[in-house]
Design goal:
It is a single chain. It contains 14 helices and nine strands. By secondary structure, it is of the alpha/beta class. The C terminus is likely disordered.
């Protein structure tokens, strides 16, 4: 590995020894070779140390007491030597051409600070069969048009997971890195803050494979919803939100209402649906949610589960 590589791949890990080797292998086997791999062992108590020792000639390791994913990534950022950063969770996989495609894009476009691509979510069943689905098909990657404002899209939903993106280190440091108080959705918070000040672009290609499994951070749905709402509170207090048009703010309160509904915050859900309609009276889904809420109350979440496509929400996977 070069002392000053072009890219630093940062892998925070906490008790994911069963998946860690495959993750590191996917980072090692890239067609682009000017990179370093940094693993932040965030207080693991399983066989993580044994796994890491097998890769000692290929990776850099930093061990610390458990502090959470945001803090682990921030340590990785501080010690990274690369100009560009990739944040890879320790159970996800990089596509072999990811670094080549995205590094070339950033080199060609000096005005872009974050580039992201499509990917696959995958899940292994009890029989060992693996099912794949494009992240764009499941709503976890939203392609932002070249002439679109990324913050307009990120104001209500996360548009892409960290494993499919590459970001300039300078940009992340200037924006203040990850919010260490968040236990999930910390990537969405970072992307939104970046989008308010820098340019984010999409480039065609497959960047990574996002693993869906029991016991992962994304599997704790109630906590994810509460953290989602914490990020929304931060967005609501931002200058961008205050200056956003009524259509964007209407969508924001519609989404906030749905999430409030799922954790039983009935009054907050009602206020959000009413605000959404007040801001955009032409929004059919906001009006539908307002009416259905009056009829069904918190039972509306059961209708949402059954008829999710009617509401048209993408990127809200905790529910």
């Amino acid at each position: 590995m070069n002392k000053y590589p072009k890219v630093s791949i940062i892998i925070p890990t906490y008790n994911t020894a069963n998946y860690l080797a495959a993750t590191i292998d996917s980072a090692i086997h890239q067609s682009f070779t000017d990179y370093e791999i940094i693993v932040i062992d965030d207080g693991s108590t399983d066989e993580t140390e044994t796994i890491l020792d097998k890769y000692k000639n290929n990776i850099r390791v930093h061990k610390q007491l458990n502090q959470g994913p945001g803090a682990a990534r921030n340590v990785g950022i501080q010690i990274a030597n690369g100009e560009n950063l990739v944040f890879l969770d320790s159970d996800d996989l990089l596509h072999s051409g990811m670094l080549a495609i995205q590094t070339a894009y950033l080199d060609r476009n000096s005005d872009v600070d974050v580039v992201y691509s499509n990917g696959y979510r995958f899940k292994e069943d009890k029989k060992g069969h693996v099912k794949y689905k494009l992240l764009s098909k499941s709503g976890e990657v939203v392609k932002i048009p070249l002439d679109g404002n990324p913050a307009d899209y990120l104001i209500s939903h996360n548009c892409f997971p960290p494993c499919v993106a590459m970001v300039r280190k300078r940009c992340v440091i200037e924006i203040g890195c990850f919010d260490e108080s968040l236990t999930t959705c910390e990537d969405w918070d970072l992307w939104f803050r970046i989008a308010c000040n820098y340019k984010i672009s999409f480039v065609n290609g497959i960047a990574a494979y996002y693993r869906v499994r029991k016991g992962s951070n994304s599997d704790d749905k109630p906590r994810n919803i509460r953290e989602h709402l914490r990020v929304m509170k931060k967005i609501e207090q931002s200058e961008f939100f205050k200056n956003a048009n009524e259509t964007l703010r209407s969508e924001f309160y519609y989404v906030k209402g749905i999430l409030s509904l799922f954790i039983g915050e009935k009054e907050n859900a009602r206020l959000c649906f009413n605000t959404s309609v007040d801001l955009n009276r032409s929004s059919i889904k906001a009006q539908s949610a307002q009416i259905l809420f009056k009829l069904f109350g918190v039972r509306l979440k059961n209708i949402y589960r059954a008829k999710r496509i009617i509401f048209g929400i993408h990127g809200i996977h905790p529910v």
